[in-house]
Amino acid sequence: MKRGAAWLAAVGLLGCNLGPPAPGDTLADFGFEGVGGPGVELVQLRGQVVVINFWASWCPPCIEEMPQLEALRVALDGDPVRVISATVESIPDQDVLGFLRRHGFQGAAFRDRRWRVAHRLGTFKLPETYIVGPDGRLVRKVEGLPQPGWGDPRWTDELRRLARGEP
User: Please, what's the b/e burial string for 89-110 (b: 16 or more CB within 10 A of its CB; e: otherwise)?
Assistant: First the structure.
């Protein structure tokens, strides 16, 4: 028991972070399996703002959020912003794609099997969304449905500012 406490104290003194990332932290690289298309690695998206949304088909707020995410994705088409819709479910690809289309999301679909990335980021409920700056640093975590919703111009303005490197 004493060794464990000493080890944890040493880790704390050395500044190692054993918890989820906080805003301002550079995220370690991770990737998502593609659903009906290629996968993606975070490192491939450096230089872009990345909006990562974790969802499940059994989650009513996730269903409500899908058309808003699509409105955001469409509004930012042509900007260096990528919206990643990642299910945490292990359901067939056609079910994932069918869910997204039925609920208004037309962008690329990704999967986070066994919540591997979601847990690493600190996700504990759905939906949860992470905004990553062009430098790979976590900017913000949004728990649940954002107020105002993703279709609100304040979100597009904020994400465009981030893409230009402005605070």
Answer: beeeeeebeebbeebebebbbb
CB 121 within 8 A of CB 21: yes
CA 97 – CA 87 distance, rounded (Å):
10
Dist CA 97 CA 102 (whole Å): 9
pLDDT one-digit tens code per residue, 29-58 = 999 999 999 999 999 999 999 999 999 999
Enumerate the β-bridge partners of residue 33: 111
Domains of the chain are: 21-163 (3.40.30.10)
Cα–Cα distance measured from residue 121 to residue 22, given in angstroms and rounded to the nearest whole number:
9
Q: Which residue has the tokens 């974790």?
A: 54
Roughly what angle, to the nearest 10 degrees, separates helices 60-75 and 153-163? 60
